[in-house]
């Protein structure tokens, strides 16, 4: 008869988020515990909260070790905002500037 009871290998003895495990059978036929890594979340856009494409979904410690080229996209606000939000920001800024120009022209015409 084979015993299927296993024990934790680390000091933490509670079934918490950081202590998730799965059973693994060794080549010798022994059941041992294998610790699972936490699932990673995708990097989100700061404005619309959508997943950012082109940025890997890794844990923060691994992200710190990655090069800057991997963590961002070569665009304004690359790696923090999605392309749609960047486009709308650029259009908004342009329209605000145009509005200022129109206001200046109207003011100049009113003086004449």
How would you portray this structure in words?
- It contains three helices and two strands.
- The termini are far apart.
- The chain has a two-stranded antiparallel ribbon.
- It is an alpha+beta fold.
- The protein is rod-shaped, with a radius of gyration of 27 Å.
Secondary structure topology:
Elements: E1 21-25, E2 31-35, H1 60-65, H2 68-71, H3 83-111
* Largest beta-sheet details: 2 strands, antiparallel
Question: Which strands sit side by side, in order, in the main sheet?
Answer: 1-2
How many DSSP-defined strands?
Answer: 2
In whole angstroms, how far apart are the ends?
Answer: 103 Å
What is the number of helices? 3
Shape: rod-shaped
The gyration radius over C-alpha positions equals 27 Å
List the helices and strands in order.
Answer: EEHHH
Compute the average pLDDT: 93
Helical content stands at 25-40%
Question: What are the low-pLDDT stretches, counting only 5+ consecutive residues below 50?
Answer: none
What share of residues are in beta strands? 5-15%
What structural class do the secondary elements suggest?
alpha+beta
């Amino acid at each position: 008869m084979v015993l299927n009871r296993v024990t934790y290998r680390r000091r933490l003895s509670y079934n918490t988020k950081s202590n998730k495990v799965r059973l693994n059978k060794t080549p010798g036929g022994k059941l041992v515990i294998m610790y699972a890594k936490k699932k990673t979340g995708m990097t989100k856009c700061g404005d619309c909260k959508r997943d950012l494409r082109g940025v890997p979904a890794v844990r923060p410690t691994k992200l710190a070790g990655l090069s800057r080229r991997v963590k961002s996209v070569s665009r304004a606000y690359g790696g923090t905002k999605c392309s749609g939000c960047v486009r709308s920001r650029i259009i908004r800024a342009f329209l605000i500037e145009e509005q200022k120009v129109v206001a200046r022209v109207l003011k100049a015409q009113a003086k004449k």
